[in-house]
């Protein structure tokens, strides 16, 4: 399944980033998925849930942001949604339109969970009054990898 390999790739990138930031858990992951990427959001969500088990992303909230496919005609300059499946020809001109958006497959946002992992959440140590419980930390997706934040895509 296409979505499973995408989920596995995204999870390994995010796990690596969480490890580098010293976080044992990831609270929120937001993926940006173009409607022309061929990814079925519900299949991705399902695959993510399975692939995240036994990783730092287990139980993380997955948000999926869909990006509309848009294209522009290089001849007349008209910009319009491509639709799905995409219509890539400009009807009046007969020219091939350039796709502007809709192929995204990116990690848009990651929040790390800095809550100390504890068997017994109620009985932590004496510094319980500091209000740091449940703190999350936002990670700039640009920091996720030295490479781009694009998920490998077949
Ligand atoms: Zn045109």
UniProtKB/TrEMBL annotation:
**Role this protein plays:** Involved in the maturation of [NiFe] hydrogenases. Required for nickel insertion into the metal center of the hydrogenase.
Note whether Metal-binding occurs among the keywords: yes
The name this protein carries in UniProt is Hydrogenase maturation factor HypA
Low complexity composition bias: residue spans: 121-136
The keyword Lyase is annotated on this UniProt entry:
no
* Disordered: annotated segments: 116-154
Query: Which gene name does the record give?
Result: hypA
Top-level division of the source organism's lineage:
Bacteria
| Any Pfam family matching the protein | HypA
Q: According to its UniProt record, which protein family does this protein belong to? A: Belongs to the HypA/HybF family.
């Amino acid at each position: 399944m296409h979505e499973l390999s995408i989920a596995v790739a995204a999870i390994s990138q995010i796990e690596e980033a969480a490890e580098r930031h010293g976080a044992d858990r990831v609270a929120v992951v937001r993926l940006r998925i173009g409607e022309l990427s061929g990814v079925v959001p519900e299949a991705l969500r399902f695959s993510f849930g399975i692939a995240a088990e036994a990783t730092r992303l287990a139980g993380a909230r997955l948000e999926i942001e869909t990006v509309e496919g848009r294209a522009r005609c290089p001849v007349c300059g008209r910009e319009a949604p491509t639709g799905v499946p995409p219509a890539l020809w400009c009807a009046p001109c007969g020219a091939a339109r350039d796709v502007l958006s809709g192929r995204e497959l990116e990690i848009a946002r990651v929040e790390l969970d800095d809550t100390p992992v504890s068997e017994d959440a109620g009985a932590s140590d004496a510094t319980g009054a500091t209000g740091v419980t449940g703190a999350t930390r936002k990670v700039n997706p640009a920091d996720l990898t030295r490479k781009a934040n694009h998920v490998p895509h077949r």
